[in-house]
Design a protein that fits this description.
Blueprint lengths: L3 E6 L5 E11 L2 E4 L2 E3 L6 H13 L2 E12 L6 E11 L9 E8 L13 H9 L2
Parallel strand pairs: 1-6
Antiparallel strand pairs: 1-4, 2-3, 2-7, 5-6
Length: about 130
């Protein structure tokens, strides 16, 4: 059962939306916006809710890119491709320290662990 969702949101400038946690989860400081799926909540609804809560951005689910047991957190995570609908970046979640659009070809400057392969393949296809 999926415990956590991550929203993969890109823009026309070959950038992807990332967040920096106020408190690092081990090696994980920067990551895609997301969070815990609540009881009786669909993956899609959880993704859109977490995206809005963490970033202020409105999105629409396109498809699930894949899921895995994360090698560090050991949580079952679904990676969900979302279309950017609108909204301005705003931080209202105390767990989030920073939100930004990062160049896809510069993600290795933010991420300290390898990006899940289906997500990386999708991002590479945009370059």
């Amino acid at each position: 059962m999926v415990e956590v969702v991550m929203a993969i949101v890109t823009n026309n400038n070959k950038e992807v939306l990332i967040v920096r946690r106020a408190k690092s989860e081990g090696k994980l400081l920067w990551q895609f916006p997301g969070g815990t799926v609540e009881q009786n909540e669909s993956i899609e609804k959880a993704t859109i809710r977490e995206l809005k809560e963490e970033t202020g951005i409105n999105g629409k689910v396109v498809k699930i890119l894949g899921s895995r047991i994360h090698p560090y957190t050991k949580k079952h995570i679904a990676y969900v491709l979302c279309e950017y609908i609108g909204g301005e970046i705003s931080i209202s979640d105390p767990e989030i320290d920073q939100v930004q659009w990062a160049k896809i070809n510069k993600l290795d400057q933010y991420f300290t662990t390898p990006i899940f392969e289906p997500v990386q393949e999708y991002l590479n296809s945009l370059l």
